[in-house]
Predict the structure.
Amino acid sequence: MDLYQSIKLIHLASVVLSISGFILRGYWMMIESPLLQAKPVKILPHIIDTCLLASALVMVYMSAQYPFVQSWLTIKVFALVAYIILGTIALKRGKTRQVRIIAWVLSVLVFAYIVVVALSRAPLIIT
Ligand code: HEM
């Protein structure tokens, strides 16, 4: 396996860990579990998401396919920002449980959209 493939594997592993952790934290949010406030639960997602983004940036550099040049990468960046904002509403900033659950569902849908865009390399919207 060459370096690019290894970096892609790190990216994919981070993707799986990121969404699994987000779904678990969403469940803890819904049942109002104190586990959501545990220190490792707060720190680990930052480490995973840093790996996800760092691997993405290395692949962007190595493949010379850049956001704002390749539309599927541009969409990934914007959708990632949407996922982060919705995610913080879902797990932290949402004032009521209902708002947090709606934001959580939307976050998971945005994440699924990012995966579809990544696999198809097409933004799936009219540009
Ligand atoms: C939550 C965020 C993200 C998810 C869920 C995600 C998901 C994926 C998936 C599933 C693949 C594999 C595609 C394949 O097998 O062909 C992939 C590859 C890739 N992603 Fe991401 N990604 C995310 C964020 C990003 C960001 C922000 C960037 C850069 C702007 C990025 C850049 C890339 C690149 C360059 C590849 C390699 C494509 C290739 O050479 O095959 N990703 N991503």
